[in-house]
Amino acid sequence: MIMRPARAATIIPALFGLLAIGSIFVDLLPFLQGGTAWQALFTPDDSRFDQIFFHYSTLPRTAMAFMCGAGLAVAGAAIQTIFRNPLASPTTLGVGAGVELALTIFLVMAPASLAPFQDVFTLAGGMIALGIVYLIASGRSNATLWLILAGMIVNLLLHSATQIFMLFNQQYLDSIFMWGAGDLAQNGWDSACYLAPRLVLGIIAIFALTRPLDILALGDDTANSLGAPVKWLRLIILTIAIFITASIISAVGMIGFIGLAVPATLRFVGFTRSKSLLPMSLLVGGCGLVVIDYVMRQFAGTGGDIFPTGAATALIGAPFVIVILRKARIMPDGNANSQDHPADYNLAAKHVLMVLLFVGLLAGLALSLLVSLDGQGDVVFTPIADLFAFTSTVGDRAQRTLAAIVCGAALAVSGTLIQRVGHNPMASPEITGVSSATALAMIIAMVYFGIDGRTDLMLIGAVGGVIALMVLLGLCRNFSHAPHYLLLNGLAITAILGSVVRIAMTHSGTKATMLISWLAGTTYFTRMDEVIAVAMITAILTILTLLARRPLELASMGPDQAVSLGLGISMFRLAMMMGAAILAAVSTLLVGPLSFVGLMAPHLARIAGFRLAGAHLIGAILIGANVMMVAEWLARNILYPQQLPTGLIAALIGTGYFLVLSARRR
């Protein structure tokens, strides 16, 4: 449903324009009062620091803010038009993550002689990422929804790869992290001169294609009937939009959600034709980012600690996703979700499969303690006598392996509860915002309040996870028949919390390295007493959940059926979700926020045929524990003596699994 209030359509661009002009006027006001405005603008006095700072920092930063906001909004408007999807943008379709990974690799590994090819490299990264997303989503009965889900999968995969490069290049850690958060700070006009011609060419090219854009907005069938070369037009427009995005990310880093929120909002107030949408997107996007950056500059520390504008735009823009979801009709109906449930396969009898998984877990634990690699690819066997003597090496391996197994089990239970109670096989603690909220609560407690007690952090993290889940359930209370609504709102909440995490991380000082390693999911900092405590909490909550397996089975049928059978669905859902949040919190404290384990384990268990609630829980626990055990061994040995984060290996395994699953279920 599109709103068409003519007054709002006029007021919104005018308001942003006036706010941007006002912020520039406030910056220029001291020089106007002193009669030196012209001098500060064009020929600053070398003896006046205020003029030097304004001319070489404030002014180019404002120009960069306008160019970046305008470019991202125009690129987002073009992408939304050709995909006919108000949630499509360079951020949500994996383009930004692909460009970020490509540029990180280029900056760290490419020789200086290849510097002129940076644009080509980043453009290729964005195109490859979008190509993967498009291949996953194409051919689906609900391609609009799958486009966003595929973008989420690819985003997690590419961000995991980027984190690996960051962790192995500590000398670039601060600059890469600040750049990744979207740093508009300038110390001259070089970046503006680099970006301006690229944006001008790209924006002019998109403006020249307004008529083809409107034709593509009618749908492929209609466009083909009008004689338009749909595939070529889509490829050309996407290439231009990705070129604009790649140029901006190369210059200032990730600027989140401008490309999504601005064009989507303008569509809802009546700018539906490309002829009006594109120029309005340019104006509102550019002026909007100027205003946001002006506000962020007011929080800059005296030592030059600049607040990351890119993270702030994600914090401000992500709520627009929630608003758009309430207006855009991209949700399938209650029956459409059935096709997204994993099919069942009778791999073996259920009790036989459980025994095999349990035996595999025990055998894998023994091999994890006794077998390692030496960095040259050669296998090294630890004497069994060392195992019984429990040497320091075996003790360290046991501690880390048990931590991974316990976290895999905890996240498997958490994911199973969220999927069954939420009636959504694609939901998980990582995607619904629980893990992000837990991590954020702990980081704020550590960075801003100096709390480092593990018990205190565990309680704080659990509170954060519960609050995030209650907010999510509150947003979805009127959409019980659209299970994917919970998923997409969860993605929006995750984006909001992730942006706050980036903001908090920029103030973490000397703790940055440790926190980034922890955020990537590492078992390196675990202690055996913590492993035992988390194992006990997981065991208690798992037993309580198994005792409630009958009402859990009823809740899996959907709210209407559960209520008709006498289950108080609201209170039961809240209790189960709180248990899921606690499990996610304790596992996050132990090894950091892990990606895809809580999603993949219950998904695989269901595919294996564990349908009933009790069997589903046990099967997910065994699968989650095995996957995390393998991930921990690979993280510890694959690049020995360097240590990869277990969470990143688990994310790579999980995203690889879902890419294969998506391809097979086309």
UniProtKB/TrEMBL annotation:
Membrane-spanning intervals of the chain: 63-83, 95-114, 120-137, 144-168, 235-264, 276-294, 306-325, 352-373, 401-419, 431-451, 457-476, 485-505, 531-548, 574-601, 613-634, 646-663
CDD domains: TM_ABC_iron-siderophores_like
Gene Ontology CC terms: plasma membrane
GO molecular function: transmembrane transporter activity
Biological processes, Gene Ontology terms: siderophore-iron import into cell
Entry membrane topology: Multi-pass membrane protein
Gene3D superfamilies noted in UniProt: ABC transporter involved in vitamin B12 uptake, BtuC
Xref: InterPro entries: ABC_BtuC-like, ABC_transptr_permease_BtuC
UniProtKB keywords: Cell membrane, Membrane, Transmembrane, Transmembrane helix, Transport
Localization (cell): Cell membrane
Main localisation: membrane
Family, per entry: Belongs to the binding-protein-dependent transport system permease family. FecCD subfamily.
Record protein name field: Iron-hydroxamate transporter permease subunit
Organism annotation: Thalassospira mesophila
